[in-house]
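During the reporting period the student researcher (J.K.) took over the structure-prediction task from the postdoctoral fellow and processed the backlog of single-chain submissions. One of the processed entries is reproduced below for the supervisory committee.
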Amino acid sequence: MEFLTDLNYKEVFASGKIVFVDFYANWCGPCKMLSPIVEELANERTDVDFYKVNVDDCEELPAEFGIRSIPTIVILKDNKVLKANVGFVPKEVLSKMIDEAVIAAK
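J.K. obtained the following structure tokens:
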């Protein structure tokens, strides 16, 4: 899993691929609980590119997506949001969100 920054996100979002973005902070308890689940999904799913955004290190990207709470998951393609979720959710919910985003992107 790679990290997105204010410098590289535009090229990633323009890739034409489905992109899963985990907006988080190191001090956030629910973010820490979600992180291993996102890592598991990143290892299991080859049809989606996974990225993390540390909201404390990156200002432009969270502002562009209106991130006000963390963790926030955003799944998008061609810079268009397909699915989003705020707060901790179990792996099954994230997996279903990815499945639905893949279907919607076709």
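The committee noted the following: The longest strand covers residues 18-24.
J.K. will present the remaining backlog at the next meeting.
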